[in-house]
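Action item from last meeting closed. Structure (263 res):
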């Protein structure tokens, strides 16, 4: 009997991909939290928009979400400001914990949410809404970019016939600084329905209505993550391409505020 009961589920997974099915389940079960958090996001974006004045504008807006990692945040901000692409604005959005002292740079803006949400998508969406740019990039407070990250991404995006978004390869490192591996997987939407190889830190996309994160409250046990959801949804109507060059130093962090790692 157990084999018969499992058969329809296995058929669905093969037809649509387990990540797609899990996300459909998430949207049904977690919809109430998303509605509440959308109101929080809108309220915070309006409050902070008034506080910072004219929206920072550049070719690229880099959104850095942070929560209680002052030293790591400063390193992440520096790696963003040290990009070879200078036409950039960097906005740090703190998830209600308070901001440390940051570098004095006219391209850098930093804001704090009135309270902690614990939802990375909401934090990043506020940063998107507070900026104006042709492209948007994302960096978490415990990761670093190589100086040519944006340059390599824009070289593909700005080329004739270029895609709407790109993601580069990740050099994944352990907390002791040793390299774990390099994650470099060409984009395949069918493969993405079954494997989670997409990460926000490597993603640079053209600003449009699709470029926003899920507001579902994704605890460490809820899969897939918001990174996957963004790129999978964005790629329905927009071209996404992989740049097979590692430009991100990605910390596989067991103490991540938003993501739990194992292995």
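Sequence:
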């Amino acid at each position: 009997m157990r084999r018969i009961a499992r058969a329809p589920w296995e058929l669905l997974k093969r037809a649509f991909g387990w990540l797609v099915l899990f996300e459909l389940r998430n949207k049904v079960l977690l919809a109430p939290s998303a509605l509440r958090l959308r109101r929080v996001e809108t309220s915070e974006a309006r409050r902070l928009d008034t506080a910072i004045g004219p929206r920072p504008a550049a070719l690229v807006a880099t959104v850095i979400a942070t929560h209680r990692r002052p030293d790591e945040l400063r390193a992440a901000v520096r790696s963003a400001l040290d990009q070879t692409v200078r036409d950039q604005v960097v906005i740090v959005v703190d998830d209600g914990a308070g901001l440390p002292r940051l570098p004095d740079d006219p391209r850098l803006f930093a804001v704090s949410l009135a309270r902690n949400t614990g939802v990375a998508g909401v934090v990043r969406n506020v940063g998107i809404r507070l900026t104006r740019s042709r492209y948007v990039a994302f960096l978490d407070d415990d990761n670093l970019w190589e100086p040519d990250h944006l340059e390599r991404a824009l070289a593909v995006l700005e080329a004739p016939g270029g895609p709407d978004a790109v993601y580069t390869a990740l050099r994944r490192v352990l907390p002791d600084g040793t390299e774990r591996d390099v994650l470099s997987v060409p984009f395949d939407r069918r493969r993405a329905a079954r494997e989670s190889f997409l990460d926000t830190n490597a993603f640079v996309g053209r600003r449009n209505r699709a470029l926003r994160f899920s507001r579902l409250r994704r605890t460490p046990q809820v899969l897939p993550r918001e990174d996957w959801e963004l790129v999978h949804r964005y790629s329905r109507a927009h071209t996404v391409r992989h740049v097979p060059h590692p430009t991100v130093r990605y910390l596989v962090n067991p103490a991540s505020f938003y993501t739990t790692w194992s292995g």
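Note appended to the action item: The beta strands are 57-66, 88-94, 108-112, 132-140, 144-145, 165-173, 179-183, 203-206, 240-251.
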